[in-house]
Amino acid sequence: MTMNNQGRPTSVENSGNSTRSGYPSYTGSRGLSQVEGLIYEIGDTSRTGVDFPEVEDFENRLGGMERTEEIGLAGLTEPEAMRHYTRLSRKNYAIDLGLYPLGSCTMKHNPRLNEKVVRLPGLSDIHPLQPISTTQGALDLIDTLAHWLKTLTGMPAVAMSPKAGAHGELCGLMTIRAALEAKGNPRSIVLAPESAHGTNPATATLCGYTVKPIPATKDGRVDLEAMKEALGPDVAAIMVTNPNTCGLFEREIIEIADAVHEIGGYFYCDGANFNAIVGKVRPGDLGVDAMHINLHKTFSTPHGGGGPGAGPVVLSEALAPYAPIPYVVAGDEEFELIEHDKSGKSFGRMTAFHGQMGMFVRALAYMMSHGADGLAKVAEDSVLNANYILASLKDVMSASFNGPCMHEALFDDRFLKDTGVSTLDFSKAMIDEGYHPMTMYFPLVVHGAMLIEPTESESKLSVDQFIGMMRHLVAAAKAGEKERFSGAPYNAPLRRLDETAAARNPVLRWTKPDQ
Amino acid sequence: MRYLPLSSDDRAEMLAKIGVKDIDDLFIDVPNHALLKGLVDLPLHMTEMEVEQNFAAFSDRNISAGSVPFFVGAGAYRHHVPAAVDYQIQRGEFLTAYTPYQPEISQGTLQALYEFQTQVAQITGMDVANASMYDGSTAAGEAALMARRITRKNKAIVSGNLHPQYIDVIKSATKYTEDVIVVSETTVNRAENLLELVDDDTNCVIVQYPDFFGNINDYSALADALHEKNKLLVIITTEIVALGAIKSPGEMGADIVVGEGQSIGNGLNYGGPYVGLFATKQKYVRQLPGRLCGQTTDADGKRGFVLTLSTREQHIRREKATSNICTNAGLCTLAFTIHMTLLGEAGYRQLAKINHAAAVKLASKLSKVKGVELLNDTFFNEFTVRLNKNAADVVEALVEQDIIAGLPVSRLYPDNKDLANDLLIAVTETTSEDDMDILVGELSEVLK
User: What is the DSSP letter of A452?
Assistant: First the structure.
């Protein structure tokens, strides 16, 4: 063995099996993969990471309602808390760590400039109910973002307040219902394709509508003839995602719009996949009456482990009067914030205050950074990356539909036939290769769906590595390496988790062991 | 373009592999006339520095709360957030992760959610909490819908002392369902008799605690009376710091508790994003809206966490889901739980005490000002005063003196003339005694 002068070995001969030491770990940790307990196991109710001044005695005004029982909150000092959350963070996959091919989720790079500007005190430290004369810059910003959204979609109006995509859907459909009621009949049915996001039917139900599914054609699009047959005087609207959840552009989108308009209904477009066409196609030119835009997808506001989102809804001239309050009006001298409906037409209010300002700031910074030219490139590169993946994998995996696709490529599990490997197994094996799996088992219209959305944020090198990894796994599956898949993941912080047990006997909080 | 890694050579090579000549060949499914031939009419791309300059200009035209004596609350509160919170939520592993649908590589987010759910359940005094909602107001709407699902009755009685925008959100959330919302009369500082509005069709009574005007009411008797009639009590707290000082809604017998969690870990942000808290009793777990994180084990028997009971949710149940909600408040939830962990029980209680002490101090100073009448008998860190002048005019006059004096209640009750002179004033640990004295001094001048 090679040694330095002090006898310290400097080479790694005879270092044993490279994949696993085999020695049990005393701590449960393995190198940088560290086990971390709950705050309730490492902290206690007396410890704190915040220093406060003492308070002089005073006569309280709580009316005898003092809280006397122990709450049980565990505290940590700052070093303990930093270590706790830093250790937890390292158990997460993230865009910053690698390609995140979740179809329909648009996991693109989150520019740090946006995090910087959103923290400017004049944007972060302002109160939604402080005098409007003291927030003119904020209202200008909202109005500017509205202008960008209207211009990019070719729509005349936008409701800014919805807090997420599904909230935007609700806003759009409620606006439609209010408009129909104003005409004297809200109608009773909403049409939605089988491939729709689950939020579409759930939203329609909340608006008092019955959902009627529309089948897909063999090429993964809305069956126009079936849709026309379903249309009638009771149909309030059709909800169509475009590009759709199979990653395809609805070729007959204008015919769909015309048909629903002909019977006096409205065309709601789910804008979840707007990234594929931003700067290239304006939904307003396709006959759309309302469409929500997920700022956390197309305009890169961070997903943050599940939120917050923001879902402004662009609206046609006919629907605009029924939009929710509040909204910003650019007056001659200053911006006004309309918080009370004077026309009697608005359907109401989606949320307290004025919407997701923090997301507005980030989205506008993203838009300004890209500009009209950069945003069109975003659409082009995202579509290019997806088609490149489709072209590079279709000989070994089963593409569900003939291309080209838009910004996501859909495969199904036919290529796994007779391998004993499921879509779930395949996905978990991707984790062992250092990737987050793609969206699996959605959309519902193909068997064992794998929906891959690389986004424009990936370099060719990155996409090529992904393709190489996928081809390698396909070969392994076909070569009968079943265990590699059925037991995966082996190298994640945890092995596969028992979701059935979690649902059967829900344990949703920590409790003291003796309770 | 700094955010786009593909070079023109890359693009050409990739198009060749795909077998097309031009990028627009990939857009062939778009109806020809709808594919834009040029760019949309918006500015071209900007450098990082140019973008920063634009936002500095937006920012400079607002008066930030920290730059002046500041007294607005009404559902959003200016508290001090420890630096460690903002550092942690900007770690890429938290910031740039998606919803934890692949639990093996999302344990960071999931464990934090599990700890969050525990904290919320403890603070509200309830059995369980969900993994958060968009904000307090939308959570209030969901509470009304949940009460209907549980009782199968369709009428909710809403206190007129609930934040007016929350009332509007509840009305909108139930506008096209078969729910009936009855709002009691607003009563600034008199006790409401909500029970007399309850009838057979009622599913729940919804109250705010402390209420919109800052009053602290004991709802224990109301809870008992409602339970006797098989009705539910929903308690909403918009200033979650209050529960470090006053009895929890759970102790009073609440069935569903809704909270706005912004005060902990999150800035004012002009109204969003915030974090909705939602807690209930164990027996109603399967009627909860939104995401839930639960404990389980992995294939090696190690403890781990997953999103669970998803059969309630839209992506499985579609039109039969308990709610159409998909997103939660993710990162704001994380900020909440980190801040709460740093506080711990000792810090949380001390924070509440400091807030209350400051409010008591300002209330006592203001009570001595001619033309100011304190309307509250009880309050936590927010109270209502009646002025001898129109409150909106007074607030505008004080803006000229670089003071943001509070919320003229009329902004949210434009049609209630009785409230025209009422000013809602909030005080937190960030309010200094100097701030108070400046307010008292200038207010005395204006009210002369």
Answer: E
DSSP B49-73: HHHHHHHHHHHHTB--GGGS-B---
Distance from the Cα of B197 to chain A's closest Cα (Å) equals 24
Q: CATH assignment of A115-367?
A: 3.40.640.10
ipTM over 0.95? The verdict is yes
CATH number of B83-340: 3.40.640.10
Q: Phi and psi at residue A309, in whole multiples of 5°?
A: -105, -165
Task: Say if CB A360 and CB A142 are below 8 A apart.
Answer: yes
Smallest CA–CA distance, residue A420 to chain B, in Å, is: 19
DSSP for A319-387 reads TGGGPPBPEEEE-SSSEEEE-S-SSS-S--BSSSTTS-HHHHHHHHHHHHHHHHHHHHHHHHHHHHHHH
Q: How far apart are CA A220 and CA A217, in angstroms?
A: 5
- Residue A285, C-beta contacts closer than 8 angstroms, at least 6 positions apart: A154, B33, B34
- Which residues, 6 or more positions from A184, have their beta carbon under 8 angstroms from its beta carbon? none
pLDDT digits (tens, 9 = 90+) for B241-289: 999 999 999 999 999 999 999 999 999 999 999 999 999 999 999 999 9
CA count, 13 A, side-chain hemisphere, A366: 26
Residue ranges of domains in chain B: 65-80+346-447, 83-340
Q: Return the domain boundaries, chain A.
A: 27-42+74-91, 115-367, 373-493
Residue A257 CB partners (closer than 8 Å, separation 6+) = A267, A286, A287, A288
Across the interface, whether the CB atoms of B3 and A457 are under 8 A apart is answered yes
Q: Is B22 near chain A, with CB under 8 Å?
A: no
pLDDT in tens, A24-50: 889 989 888 899 999 999 999 999 999
Please provide the CATH number assigned to the domain covering B65-80+346-447: 3.90.1150.10
Please check whether residue B222 is in contact with residue B233, taking contact to mean a CB–CB distance below 8 angstroms. Answer: yes
Under DSSP, the state recorded for B210 is S
User: In chain B, whose CA is at the least distance from the CA of A204?
Assistant: B319
Q: Which fold has domain A373-493?
A: Aspartate Aminotransferase, domain 1 (3.90.1150)
How many CB atoms neighbour CB A62 within 10 A? 18
Question: What phi, psi does A182 have (nearest 5°)?
Answer: -60, -30
CB atoms within 10 A of CB B212: 27
pTM score of the predicted model: 0.97
